[in-house]
């Protein structure tokens, strides 16, 4: 019996800390989107991207100690070989991004999973559509991150991305102007010198829980332990 107890203990140890979290991607938009994924640590999910029609959802098992991001590609057209282009969030012109990130401007849902999970919705790379994060089944603070405002109509003229006469995305000031002040680089590369700008404050006022600039940690980074997550587009 002692031998079996030892073996059971070893099985428990080998699997403890490796449980998967369940991520559910929901498309609440009126249009078809192509969610993209990029991993910083751990496996590439969904081959880097997939198609999601309005009202549908897809569930993914995400391993412990994974980090990465999700975003929505919009206005995509792909041929039978999976090659094409998206109006926003394009990732190398492929249906499955295969390790390529989304071209800014794009709204990002970012995660780092460990004993404590960290998550946020970031506008540091700009904005295309709203994203909300709803943790469930976990412990700790576990706050939801949501914003239903369409920021595109509020986008300053210099930051607008226009396709077929319609504003489809809003650049970050860093992408538009590429200066140290807006990109938090050089002399502005620390929290003491890089402060909110008039552009980031427009977005922060509309979506208070979103990351609006590089050092917006205090009001925009959230934690939860052993949770599952709903990522809702629109």
TrEMBL record:
Disulfide bonds join 29-234, 76-86, 91-97, 142-224, 147-207, 155-170, 174-183, 184-194. Residues 1-20 form the signal peptide. It is found in: Secreted. SMART domains: THN (SM00205). One of its GO terms (cellular component) is extracellular region. PROSITE patterns: THAUMATIN_1 (PS00316), THAUMATIN_2 (PS51367). Pfam families: Thaumatin. Keywords: Disulfide bond, Secreted, Signal. InterPro entries: Osmotin/thaumatin-like_sf, Thaumatin, Thaumatin_CS. It comes from the Eukaryota. Its main location: secreted. Belongs to the thaumatin family. This is Thaumatin-like protein.
């Amino acid at each position: 019996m002692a031998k079996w107890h030892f073996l059971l203990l070893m099985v428990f140890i080998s699997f403890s800390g490796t449980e998967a979290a369940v991520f559910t991607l929901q498309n609440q938009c009126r249009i078809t989107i192509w969610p993209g994924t990029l991993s910083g640590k751990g496996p590439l999910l969904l081959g880097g991207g997939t198609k999601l029609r309005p009202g549908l959802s897809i569930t993914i098992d995400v391993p412990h100690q994974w980090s990465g991001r999700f975003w929505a590609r919009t206005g995509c057209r792909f041929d039978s070989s999976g090659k094409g282009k998206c109006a926003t969030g394009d990732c190398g012109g492929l249906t499955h991004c295969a390790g390529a990130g989304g071209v800014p401007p794009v709204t990002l849902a970012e995660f780092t999973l460990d004993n404590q999970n960290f998550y946020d919705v970031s506008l540091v790379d700009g904005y295309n559509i709203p994203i909300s994060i709803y943790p469930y089944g976990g412990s700790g603070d576990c706050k939801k991150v949501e914003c239903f405002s369409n920021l595109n109509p509020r986008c300053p003229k210099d930051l607008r991305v226009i396709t077929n006469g319609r504003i489809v995305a809003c650049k970050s000031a860093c992408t538009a102007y590429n200066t140290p002040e807006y990109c938090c680089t050089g002399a502005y590369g620390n929290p003491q010198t890089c402060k909110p700008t008039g552009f980031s404050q427009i977005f922060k006022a509309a979506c208070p829980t979103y990351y609006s600039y590089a050092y917006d940690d205090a009001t925009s980074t959230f934690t939860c332990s052993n949770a599952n997550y709903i990522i809702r587009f629109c």
